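Pipeline run #58 for the internal structure catalog. This entry was flagged by the ingest filter as a single-chain record with no existing model, so it goes straight to prediction. Upstream metadata was stripped on purpose; only the residue string is passed forward. Reviewer on rotation: M.T. Logging verbosity set to normal.
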Amino acid sequence: MNSPFFSKSRRSLLLAGAATLAVPELVSAAAKGYGIEGQLAPELDVANWIDGQGAPGSFSLQGQRGKFVLLECWQAWCPGCHSHGFPTLQKVYGALKNSDYFVAVGVQTTFEGYATNTADKMREMQTRYDLPISMGHDAGDPSTGRRPTTMTNYHTGGTPWVILISPEGYVLYNDFGMDGDKAIAYLRAEIAILSV
């Protein structure tokens, strides 16, 4: 990732840490033409949100500046989302939920299975995985072939998909899955720097 927006020392630290978050057996998303690492994170163009308690809500990346944002893209019927996507999100969120410099958010990017991957699944996933975080439903349109805007804007390759956004608003990591322990260690080290 070539990221001229960070100072050289901060960029080196961020790149060294972010590069270790991937699941080792998977080929890098960037090598497959996915992701937008190093770019300014596009605002989430999602109209349907619930807050951490399941009530109608909203979410803005701009409103999270100064924090690391961990964005998990999922679908309710996605086996990988249940086997490692949500459990990893749950682990990282649990370790960092009390930090003023971290926020987790989930977006159901429905690009198939429209009858199953419905908006009501947001609350179901919150309660099933004990994740009191904002969740959005970004449904594509099967009649026009339109993909969810989150998938299009972040060049994701499916679900589960993980995006880590820096406090400055840039995409640090954008790939299938991540190693939760490495992510926690990386984020704790970065948050310690921000906290000084």
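catalog note: The CA atoms of residues 33 and 141 lie 23 Å apart.
catalog note: Confidence is low (pLDDT under 50) at residues 1-17, 22-27.
status: ready for reviewer M.T.
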